[in-house]
Each structure stands twice: as C-alpha cells, then as structure tokens.
Amino acid sequence: MNAKNKLADIFCTLPKQLLQLFSASPEMLVLGIPALRIISISFVFAAVTILCGYFDSGLGNGMFDMSASVENLLLEADALGLGAVWLGIAPLKERMEAVRTVLNVPENLDAFAIIPCDYPEAVHT
Q1: DSSP class per residue in 2-58
Q2: Dihedrals φ, ψ of 84, to 5°?
Q3: With 60 as the cut, is the pLDDT of residue 1 above it?
Q4: pLDDT tens across 76-119, in order?
Q5: CB 11 within 8 A of CB 50
Q6: 66: helix, coil or strand?
Q7: What are the φ/ψ torsions at residue 118 (nearest 5 degrees)?
Q8: Which end of the chain has less Cβ packing within 10 Å, N or C?
C-alpha cells in the first residue's frame, strides 16, 4: 500500500480524530467529518488525473494539462466567491514574449495564461 492510499484510509476512517487535532468545534466536526470522507474518495481520481497528465506531457501535449489546470483554478475561484477570467497567452509567441518582457519571466519558462481575480462588486443571478 502506498502513502497516498494510507492517507486516504486515515481520512476516511478517522476524520473526527484528525479534526480534533485542530481543536475543532462541534459545528466544525459536523461539517468536517463528511468532507474528509469525500476528500479521501477523490484521492483515487487525483492519482489517475496526475498520471494521465504526466503521460500526456511526456507526449508533448502540455497545453492540454495547463488548460485543465486553468479551468480548475477558475472553478475554485468561483467556489470561493471570486470573479476570475482566463486571459489566453499561449500558444501565440508574440503574446508569450510580451508577457515574458513585462513580467520578467525567466527564459526557461513560458507564459501560458493570466488569470486576474477579485471579489465582484455585484453578483448577477
């Protein structure tokens, strides 16, 4: 059994004990115990996603991995109540070079996207 499986087992079987390490209130335990069990299930999917991402990058398709990462960042920003927008930089070389110059990005790195985020003034439903 690898370390990730052990961690998932601990999260799933001992969530209350883990949360009590942080002086969790009874209200936090009510929310945190189911959350840790759900998180433990996601470890399997995360491992598959990471492995597929490494395999895909090894084939020279890093653009897909970066796109998925930006999408996940946008989803998390929304979940936190933030407004965010994906400003595409790559694969256009002139944009990538402009960002490199303005932000002083090292030569061994490439700019992919800029994602400004902030709390919105109003929420439209």
Answers
A1: -HHHHHHHHHHH-HHHHHHTTT--HHHHHHHHHHHHHHHHHHHHHHHHHHHHHHHHH
A2: -145, 155
A3: no
A4: 888 888 888 888 888 889 988 988 888 888 888 788 888 888 87
A5: no
A6: helix
A7: -165, 170
A8: C
